Amino acid sequence: RQAKALGHGLMSAYNHALGRLGHRALEHDLRAAIATDQLYLVYQPKIDFDSGDLVGCEALLRWRHPSLGLVAPCDFIPVAEESGIIVQLGRWTLDEACRQIRRWLDAGEVAPSVAVNLSPRQFLHGDIVEGVRASLAAHGIPAGLLELELTETVAVRDIDRVIAIMHELKRLHVSLSIDDFGTGFSSLSYLMRLPVDQLKIDRSFISHLVTDQRAQALVKGVIDIGDGLGMRVIAEGVETPAQASLLSVLGCSVMQGYFFGRPMSPDQLEEALRVPAGK
Ligand code: C2E
Ligand code: CA
Ligand code: CA
Ligand code: CA
């Protein structure tokens, strides 16, 4: 809930409207949103703090509702997940992200890799492997430019199936990340079996990093685990220079957060590509 308070005054106003609207109406409006171009993606840079290079970005979904205005994902993703609309929503997002990569490639830009969030239901019931394959093919995208972010909660549901699907995705050569790592209580023995390339340390650890010894110990632990398992580690929600330099000292140099850039339009990200961070 806290994230909503940040930045968008619209969000709290929306919550009231959302309450009145109810789930059924929201479901209905969401279906219309997919059909009538109310959705769009914004892109948040991922930066290598040590070199200042932009190493990729994360695609984040936005919904401009015709009467309610901008709706935050935390207000509609859960409803979409519950009702199953997430499968169509996720397909749209994946396809739009690939379309954007294609635009960057066509513009002659060095296309950044784009990470797309997958919800558990979309992952387990959305024929995700075929969806990813189709979107890559439709836009002629090198699979190395697409990253998929999954929360560890997905692994708690049906670990053997999750692992099987992950291996199929790896066969397509896309890269896989565990999102919000450290918040899902999944067992470390699961992690050992998951063919993932990257761990994203959850923002909740980063926000306490500078003042809380225990957060520091946990973050250091995650970095060591990632190193030991050959996984890249990235910190999300980095808001201050103090957090960034401490992370770098602890051995994590890839970061994402308001300190480096808010989620932005493709044009703005292109600008960031031309002018490396910190230069
Ligand atoms: P997430 O995947 O953990 O995404 C990061 C969220 O943290 C984003 O919020 C981002 O704007 C925000 N954030 C980034 N840097 C900072 C920072 O320095 N400080 C703070 N306080 N916040 C920061 P957003 O865009 O509202 O998305 C919220 C969540 O909604 C995402 O969390 C993800 O779980 C979900 N979501 C967003 N887009 C999609 C999507 O296309 N598909 C699915 N399934 N879920 C999505
Ligand atoms: Ca994410
Ligand atoms: Ca995250
Ligand atoms: Ca998070």
TrEMBL record:
Source organism superkingdom: Bacteria
Protein name: GGDEF domain-containing protein
Section of the entire sequence shown: 342 to 620 of 633
Organism placement in taxonomy: Bacteria, Pseudomonadati, Pseudomonadota, Betaproteobacteria, Burkholderiales
Domain EAL per the UniProt entry, residue ranges: 23-277
Species: Pseudoduganella albidiflava
